[in-house]
Amino acid sequence: MKEPVKQILMIGPLPPPVGGARVLFHNTVEYMETLDGIDLKVIPLWNRNSPMALKLLAAIRILIQVLFIGRRFEVISFWSSKSGMLYFSPLMRIASSILNKPLVFRLFGIGFDKPINELTLFNRILARFFFLSGDLILLETQIAVDLMKAEFPTANIAIHKNYRKVPGIEIMPRRQCRRFIYLGKIRKNKGILEIIEAAESLNTQNIIVDIYGPFEGDLSKDIFDNCRIVKYCGIIEPDNVADILNNYHALLLPTFYEGEGHPGAILEAYASGLPVITSNWQAIVEIVDGSSGILISPGNVESLRDAMIKLINGPDFYQKLIRGALKKRQEFSLISGVERFLTYCNDL
Questions:
Q1: How is the beta sheet containing 293-296 ordered, strand by strand?
Q2: Do residues 292 and 324 make contact, with C-beta atoms less than 8 angstroms apart?
Q3: In 3D, which of 5, 19, 26 has the Cα closest to residue 339?
Q4: What is the pLDDT of residues 68-82, one digit of tens each?
Q5: Is the Cα torsion angle 329, 344, 26, 161 positive or negative in sign?
Q6: Which tens digits make up the pLDDT trace of 189-239?
Q7: For helices 334-346 and 20-32, what crossing angle results, to 10°?
Q8: Which listed CATH number (3.40.50.620, 2.60.40.150, 3.60.10.10, 3.40.50.2000) goes with 7-163+333-346?
Q9: Are the C-beta atoms of residues 102 and 75 closer than 8 Å to each other?
Q10: pLDDT value at position 173?
């Protein structure tokens, strides 16, 4: 019987800044470090907002580190977004070949949700190398897995769903839905303006809609200046997310962001027993159904407003969604996600 993998070299993004991919990777390696028998080394990636020159220097540094220390590890695993995979995977393949070690790529987000021939010629070449060079390619969504398996039948491609840490706190009882939260980047294609328009049109009393997250480019704090219901509340540190969510009744995420995979905010909400109102958009339908939330049309303010009213005025329906969210949190828990990853490593 094959011995389980014990030595793993992990390369991926760590906070700061705070973001879904960085939180996922941080939680993963943090939990793996607590497991008996696992010898883990983590090499952090560059900050994605750094100038290209600094990214290139960081890539060279990472390559040198991998070549210098990689020989003592049984598996090398590289976690990144689509762009990071395309441009850095050739270097990782060279390093793993020199070291004669299996290489596992884990892609964040929706990734490759369109045919390869829709990419530029240069990116098509990189994508083909990426899918045919890794010993195992882990994609976050079933949409991407099915499409890339059809494109590359000989590649070893599998699904590795997004997941989050289940909080070790007592979940507050929720009898009615009055307090809504948005958690994520503050940008137009996350549906922030739709949240403001829908919430500010509500006539119901004692409704709270709080927005948390960093601003990204196309919006600023002054969008909240004339709001009576919607309030911007700043950025939440990853370790405080569960405590903050415990003070709310439902998550709002009316996103139409092109890179959306399995949004971490939805999984954070499930971990705290919160139902979600989110968009029928890309791979979100893989993790949200009628048992745990309400799916709305992307960019449709009226649809968002109606869903909020349905939760506000329907306590029995709201309680049903709470039960569904609590069931979902086990499916997308940190422990189950790490166990799946280690199983994949052991099967190489």
A1: 230-232, 208-212, 179-183, 250-253, 276-279, 293-296
A2: yes
A3: 5
A4: 999 999 999 999 999
A5: negative
A6: 999 999 999 999 998 889 999 999 999 878 999 999 999 999 999 999 888
A7: 70
A8: 3.40.50.2000
A9: yes
A10: 85
Give 72's strand partners.
none
**pTM (2 d.p.):** 0.88
Where residue 2 falls among pLDDT bands split at 50, 70, 90? low
Residue with tokens 């977004």: 81
**Contact yes or no for 214/192 (Cβ under 8 A):** no
Homologous superfamily in CATH for domain 179-331: Glycogen Phosphorylase B; (3.40.50.2000)
From the list 113, 105, 94, the residue with the least C-alpha distance to 136 is: 105
Token duo for residue 107: 């892609």
**Per-position DSSP letters for 25-87, written without gaps between them:** HHHHHHHHTTSTT-EEEEEEPPPTTS-HHHHHHHHHHHHHHHHHHGGG-SEEEEEE-HHHHHH
Beta bridge partners of 159: 139
* Sign, CA torsion 48/52/53/59: positive
- Concatenating the DSSP letter of every residue in 179-213 gives EEEEES-BSGGGTHHHHHHHHHT---SS-EEEEES
Which residues make Cβ contacts (< 8 Å) with residue 232, sequence separation at least 6? 186, 210, 211, 221, 224
On whether the CB atoms of residues 271 and 333 are closer than 8 A, the answer is yes
Q: Would you say residue 119 has pLDDT above 60?
A: yes
- Enumerate residues 6+ apart whose C-beta is below 8 A from 289: 295
